[in-house]
Write a structure and sequence with these properties.
- There is one protein chain.
- By secondary structure, the protein is mainly α.
- The protein is 81% helix and 0% strand.
- The chain starts with 10 loop residues before the first helix and ends with a helix.
């Protein structure tokens, strides 16, 4: 179980969140640590972004509407990353299975190639979604 993160108090902390988020998203997009860890990093970022949005204060209806939409988007993207994480875990488990003959080995190689391509496509798609989400969060937090 994750420990709750503290809300942001001032503009320096918001700027740090924005900068740290940009660096984290670059790592996620490049899959520097592999698909599975990238999915976990993305979920951590989305949890933190939801907390940041929860702690922000604004006084107009448009601000509250945008924050609500962003929190909903974070939840949806988080669910997609959770599904992707399960798929990556299953792929890793499949990779560790032993083969008994060359037919199974060839089949395993084909499935691994297909799943690797699929993970790349899904990862690219989710990275685009989370980068777009981060841009929207930054614009809400900075008021631009």
């Amino acid at each position: 179980m994750q420990t709750p993160l503290q809300p942001l108090e001032n503009s320096d902390e918001i700027n740090f969140f924005i900068t740290e988020g940009a660096h984290r998203l670059a790592t996620i997009s490049m899959n520097d640590y592999g698909f599975l860890l990238s999915a976990r990093m993305a979920q951590t970022y989305l949890d933190r972004a939801a907390q940041v949005l929860e702690s922000t204060r604004g006084f107009d209806h448009a601000f509250f509407t945008e924050v609500s939409l962003l929190k909903t988007a974070a939840t949806k993207i988080g669910r997609e990353y959770a599904q992707f994480e399960v798929f990556c875990t299953d792929c890793e488990r499949f990779d560790r299975l032993e083969t008994n003959n060359w037919t199974e080995w060839v089949s395993k190689c084909a499935v691994r190639a297909i799943s690797r391509g699929y993970r790349g496509t899904v990862s690219h798609h989710l990275a685009y979604k989370i980068r777009t989400f981060h841009s929207r969060v930054c614009s809400v937090l900075t008021g631009k």
